[in-house]
Amino acid sequence: MNSSLVTPISDECRFCSVVSKANGEDPIGSAWHYDQWLIIEMPQPWEDLWHEHPVLKVIFQQIQARRQVTGAWIRPLVIAPDREYSQPNVTRILYYQRPPHPFAQFEPQEFLIPTDQILNLAIALLDQSAALLEFEPYRQPVGTRDLMVCTHGNVDVACARFGYPIYQQLRQEYAHENLRVWRCSHFGGHQFAPTLIDLPSGRYWGHLDADILDNLVNHSGTVTALRRFYRGWAGLTPVEQIAEREIWMQEGWKWLDYQKSGQVLAIDSSDEDYPDWAEVQINFNSPDGHITGAYTARIEAHGTVKTMWKSGKDETLAEVKQYQVSRLERTD
């Protein structure tokens, strides 16, 4: 392993993901609910990227400004160049957008551009403006699946310690013409390291073990084997994600291809981040439209566990609610 990729670790450091996994923290409902993803190829090391890098800090400011005006949740990420995927003197930019209708995958765009054009393309993508026409010569075919594995040790050492070996295994054993595996920057949930995002589907995974990578990558075996590793789908809000996992457990692999949308029908207003209960509806249809329906579900808090938000010697434990689906009904 390249030593420049790993943050030095004290012998007395406690890894947040080890604490989380040992205490049985369920990762479901921890996927961030995004409208757009802007992913930029950027050489390491990755320090305080969004505040110090001369281009990235401007992009981050633009994203924040759009959030204030439009309410859109936009996630910027960086990925490390790859000896096979990357090309000299150009930068890869991946962009994913939520469709305005029920969906199974985010809509992808991909570009290979001169590095001095990163900012201009990023702003054109964020605005979906006519300026995008200038970048048509740099547009790349889409249809590739991209696994983004967090190895960002500058943010939390657990992501480097546990993320890098999973990245290596995925890159060496599973990557092929239509499946790329990347090292990426922090996207939340250190305590679930090793953690990854599967794009364009937008599914988050955490507490990963080498033994379940076949199931995850190839959509093989029983879906229940992946239950405890599933953080949720970015197309839904956290409480909807909890219901969606239960539906997936019943419907099987075909569920991943169904077009879906969610709605929170009612929710406990006493705790915005960790409500005691919620009632949701998940609408769905098969790709050919022959199967349509909806599930309604009630989600309830069911006990607590202690977790640690960040790795370190003196980090304290936090108590977090765990959830179960107490009622799930399908209507066709």
Describe this structure in words.
It is built from seven helices and 13 strands. By secondary structure, the chain is α+β, with helices and mostly antiparallel strands. The protein has one domain: 3-Layer(aba) Sandwich (Glutaredoxin). It has a five-stranded mixed sheet with strand order 6-5-7-8-9. The longest helix is centred in the middle third of the chain and has 17 residues, at 157-173. The radius of gyration is 20 Å and the shape is globular.
Please give the structural blueprint.
Layout: H1 16-22, E1 36-41, H2 49-52, H3 56-70, E2 74-79, E3 90-97, E4 107-114, H4 118-127, E5 145-150, H5 157-173, E6 179-184, E7 196-199, E8 203-205, H6 213-218, E9 230-233, H7 238-251, E10 259-267, E11 277-285, E12 292-307, E13 318-331
Parallel strand pairs: 1-2, 5-6
Antiparallel strand pairs: 1-3, 3-4, 5-7, 7-8, 8-9, 10-11, 11-12, 12-13
Brief digest:
The chain is built from 7 helices and 13 strands. With 332 residues, the protein is an alpha+beta fold.
Features:
332 residues; alpha+beta; Glutaredoxin; four-stranded mixed β-sheet; 7 helices; 30% strand; globular
